[in-house]
Amino acid sequence: MSQQIEYQKRVAVRHDVDVFIAGGGPAGVAAALVAARQGRKVFLAEGHSCLGGMGTAGLVPVFMMFGDGVNFLADGIGREVREELSKEKGPNFPGGDNSIPAELLKRVYDRLLLAAGVEFSFHTQVVDVLHDGGVVQAAICNAKSGFFAVKAKVFIDCTGDGDLAAWAGAPYEKGDTDGSMMPGTLCSVWTDIDVDRFRDSGVRVQETLMKVFAEDKLFTVNDPHHPGMFRVGEHIMGGNIGHAFGVDATDERSLTKFLIEGRQRLPEFEAFYKKYIPGYEKMVLVQTGSLLGIRESRRVQGDYVLNVDDFIARAVFADEIGRYCYPVDIHPSKPDTTKYAEFEEEFRKTLRYGKGESYGIPYRCLTPRGMDNLLVAGRCISSDRKIQGSIRVMPGCYITGQAAGMAAAIAIEQQTTTRGFAVAELQRRLLGMGAFLPNAAG
């Protein structure tokens, strides 16, 4: 047994608010904006130096789809963020509508939350939770100034990893039946790339990579899954390249190991691109993400577990708070060609929608079992592993985040639990802010 000590500390209640939000990624931003615009007093704690999570600190270079080719599914906050970012980019931005220049997105998020009157602080980690009988009483935070507590009527977990919910005693699952999870990626930014020359060459990076594995000893890990580079400027590309196999986002020792490994392996990709891919001969690494890109960790178990059968059925729910359409995108947990072929079959063919198709997201996925004043939004909502591979991306997080923020506001207004109000009222208010809810009651 490891050595243990007891530690006790009295801390000040720095914030006593209506809504506390843990995590300022896309779900947290959406939840905070909606709750604040409904007149609620909101405090958001973000552990990093900026809002946005994977799209900013993590340097993920591109949004996945906001719509199904017919409908704008992430309407409401998702549309607002996308439009504000487009204004920041200006006309004729070379990366396209879904590209993410991280610094511009940081400014958008800052401006939106400040304008809405959301109180928030960076470098503020939630480290513990006080709870009793399914009621969260306070979140314990740690920041540069020390420990402090936040009291709230409703708490929303937007950490991505379900930290607050797990520490409050909510049930959760993690990984597959063996505990294996999708690998992460240390995203990166590269400059001095002749993008037009690359496009004119017709060279296919994935096919070239597979040939190199057989002919050249460039890589420490011959990983057949290569998401690739995405344009984020005139001569700038964002790299979603390389996988951190075996990373556990709920363990700082694991994160440390794979951040180091990711930085050490990037010169291998640089050598590959310079040698084999036209237009990349003079590429220069600008930076790597200050957050490791994480695709999977905890899935908090709620009153309903959204599952792959719902995806296949294009499910409709009476209590749905949104609809989404991204394919089931589960990166293989090992660098194995057979597993990669199975991924390609699912992602490209089997578990992918046609134009205009989507699945419903029920409100019950946001309400953790046994918890009366806690909601979850973003990557950690109640789902099975398959559909988590779809809902985890940023537009999906806007959808669940705005619903959680609205639900918190209603519960506080009506002085009830997160299950104590009519979902029809939640749907009515979401529709009023532009959410896509074709199956809403009435």
UniProtKB/TrEMBL annotation:
Species per Swiss-Prot/TrEMBL record: Oligosphaera ethanolica
Q: What keywords are annotated for this sequence in UniProt?
A: 4Fe-4S, Iron, Iron-sulfur, Metal-binding, Oxidoreductase
Q: Which Gene3D superfamilies match?
A: FAD/NAD(P)-binding domain (3.50.50.60)
Provide a Gene Ontology MF annotation, just one: metal ion binding
Q: What is the protein named?
A: FAD-dependent oxidoreductase
Q: Please name the InterPro entries in this protein's record.
A: FAD/NAD-bd_sf (IPR036188), HdrA-like (IPR039650)
